[in-house]
Every structure is written in structure tokens, then in C-alpha cells.
Amino acid sequence: MDAFPASVLVFLGAYILNVLYITVFYHRGLAHEAVILSPRMQRFVALTGSWVTGIDAKAWVCMHRLHHRHSDTKQDPHSPVHGGVFGLFRKQLLAYRKVLVALIRHHKDYEKVVADLDIEVSPVNARQLWYLPYLAHLAIGLALGLLSGSAWIGAAFVLGISSHPIEGWAVNALAHSFGYRNYATDDNSRNNSWVALLVAGEGYQNNHHRYPDEARFSHRWFEWDWGYQLCQLLSLFGVLRITRSTRT
Length: 248
Description:
Layout: H1 3-31, E1 35-37, H2 39-53, H3 57-69, H4 80-83, H5 88-104, H6 108-113, H7 123-126, H8 132-148, H9 151-161, H10 164-174, H11 193-198, H12 205-210, H13 226-236, E2 240-242
Antiparallel strand pairs: 1-2
């Protein structure tokens, strides 16, 4: 296989794996219980999530729940209202670090937000070795490049597996600034079809903020939530169970 098509396939595989952890396991599963993971699967996700995404599962869930609780107010950890569309990239990184440190130090206000989760901060982050997953990504990318004889293939893996900061920025900034609204929510959430296409339906933020514990983010005939299709696929193999829709 030529290097370019192989690079595309490697990028897509790594990208989808990254998205799978964030949108299905972290978001729809741990944060909202729109899909139910078994206790064993929860622990597996908590242990492996940092290695796959570079982001701690418990800290991500805590920050996301705070986002819903204080959406687009000054207490929102990642709102473009107070961080700006482009400034939000740095703001969400600082907010994540703040939440992670608070959980490591067992800050009661933050622990209450995720008191229902029977998982701990991953050992990698608890021991302040947060950089190891990124080094592992680089090492795997280097190995793929050497074995295939193509630097493009190695780079494709690294870009795909390390894509969450860009995905998160697109959802938090663009889908709270640009798009249409199906529901009159009390925040600035929007449905941004381009973000939804790129980030597994996550761009339908207005739909999600109206019904946060629904596994399917698409509500109209032209909306496509391929993250929900990942949920359906995994449910066939017993990895998770999709809960009933909250909409009537």
C-alpha cells in the first residue's frame, strides 16, 4: 500500500480510537450515564484512558459536569464568553490542570462533583507523570515510521491519537458561538454541523445541553451523530448499554 492511503487509514484509526474514549466512554458514559459501562469497564477506561487520550478520565468528567452546571457563566471552566474563541484553547488547558490538581489533593468541592464515580485519578497523573502518554505516542509513531519506511505514517498516528485538544476546542468554542438552536436553553450552546461531523456528533451542543443524559445528540433528520453509532456498535458486543432517551 502506498504511503499516503496508509497514512490516512492510520490517522483515521487513531483519531476514532481517541474520539471513542472521549465521546463514548468519558462523555456519554462516565459524565452523563447516557450509556452504562459495567464497573469493570469503568475501571478499564480509567486506567487506559490517560494512555490513549492523554486526558485523565475523572478530571475530564469533573470539568465537564462543572461546564454543564455553570454553562457560559464566569464559573464555566471553558466558555468562549470569557475566554474568547481562540483564547479558549489555553483557558481549557488551564481549567483541566486546575481540576486535576484539585482531585489529586482531594479537594472536597471537586470530589463532590464526581462522588458517584468509583474510579480514581490515574496513577500516571497522580504521580505527576502526565507526559508519559505523550512520549508513548511519539515512540509508537516513531516505530510505525521506521517499520513502514514512511515518516508520514508515524506522524499520522501521533496526530490522530493526540487530537483531543483540538477536538475539545472546536466543541467548546465553536459550538458555543456559531450555529443554530433547536431549543431555548439558558446558555449559548449551538448546533454546529461541521464540528459534529468532525467530532462524532459533539457539535450538536444545543441538543446535548437540552437533554444531557441522552446518548443520541442528533435530533433532526439532517443531523448525523456518528458517535451514537459507535455506541450502538459497542452495545452489540456487550461493552455498554444504551439507556432510554430522555425525550418524550
